[in-house]
Amino acid sequence: MTTRETVIYVTREIERALGMAPNEHYLIVTNRTAYGVKVRDQYPDFVTLIADQAGELLGTGDLLKHEQTEELVAKVAKASGAKPYILVFKNTARIEPLVRDHGWMLLNPSAASSEKIESKLSQIGWLAELGRYLPAHRMASMRHVPFEGKPFVIQWAHGHTGTGTILIESEEALKAVQAKFPERWTRVTEYIRGPSFTVNVIITPDRVAVGNVSYQITGLPPFTDNRFTTIGNDWGVARTLLTADDKSRLDEMVREIGAKMQKDYWRGLFGIDVIKDIDRNKLYLIEINARQAASSPFESSLQEEQRSKGAQGLTVFEAHIAALLGQPVVKPIIEIKEGAQIVQRVTKDVRSVPAEAAGGLELAGYNVVAYENTKEGSDLLRVQSAKDIMAADGAFNDKGKEISGIVSGRGL
């Protein structure tokens, strides 16, 4: 940040805020967890940990309402003579009035904008002519969705990391969903086979700044038991899975969508997910995440490492903060050519990861972020590598196999 504004990032999971190191002008408020304590010990003056009396992890809204957050905001305002800005991972209709009622200033784009762009249903209308980037699709209530003899995908308005996506491969599977949600509206989409990718993008009033393309690691056991759940990113293998023509088409798609968001006064980070159709050799838009993407903190960490080796420019997180503060984002986004992360999620069979597994991963040279979540599908353990962990679409290389073995207990 080039000016002296102070930003307080309030988040349930501290890892979301670690796109840059905490400092006197960038403070973090989060839950007290073992990993949070580890980070707080590194930055004792800039990280506030809140412990709930019932021992529960607090959501962003409850953290915002907590007296420790109120005290910190008041302390910063008194010391600087100006109220700090509040930043959250994703703005919602619940968070926005909480911040407003406190008389604070929220940096995130409006909840209404985020909802309009991100919802699988309203997104179609928002895209308008850019809907040509989507696979063949239509909206319908589940009651009126027929099975026409070939697989297709239904997507609810909301879902994250693939939890709102269901592949329908038979009449029986369709009837089972219809029995549960007969009146629910869905986006019915052609089923596309191929690898998926993510791009983090930063919007300013005069620039669409494009980050690095990562391959989406999806559906691999033991990390998840849902074939559509995203469990990580690999920046290196993306370079081998996309041709020069793919990259050109992807850049065109990203910049067109970014320009539309720019016209709608979006500022800061958002993410675009795409899939490469291996049957037709074509790229399709999967979804737009109208918020800071979950991969952006580690992408920024990899960019910081490149800067330590002489690379010039900004990390995606630095550009995000600058754009939200209305500062110019002129420097290039730092390029990275390798690096990966993978997340063990809570599944039916995996409710915890043994401490010796986390320790074994650290001894093997990986950065490990442990979570204290219990809800199925939520993050349990994040493993970050400076090198790639994927050999091809859906296939681990030796490092990926090492991580998988340690997490599952086979490599201990």
What does this molecule look like?
The chain is α+β, with helices and mostly antiparallel strands. It folds into three domains: 7-108, no CATH class; 136-190, ATP-grasp fold, A domain (Dna Ligase, domain 1); 196-408, D-amino Acid Aminotransferase, Chain A, domain 1 (2-Layer Sandwich), CATH 3.30.470. 31% of the residues lie in helices and 25% in strands. It has 13 helices and 19 strands. The strands form four sheets. The protein has an eight-stranded antiparallel β-sheet with strand order 14-13-10-11-12-15-17-16, sandwiched between helices. Strands 3-2-1-4-5 form a five-stranded parallel β-sheet, with helices on both faces. Strands 6-9-7-8 form a four-stranded antiparallel β-sheet. Helix 12 (355-363) packs antiparallel against helix 13 (398-408). The chain is globular, with a radius of gyration of 21 Å. It starts with 6 loop residues before the first strand and ends with a helix. 42% of the residues are buried. The model has no long low-confidence stretch (mean pLDDT 95).
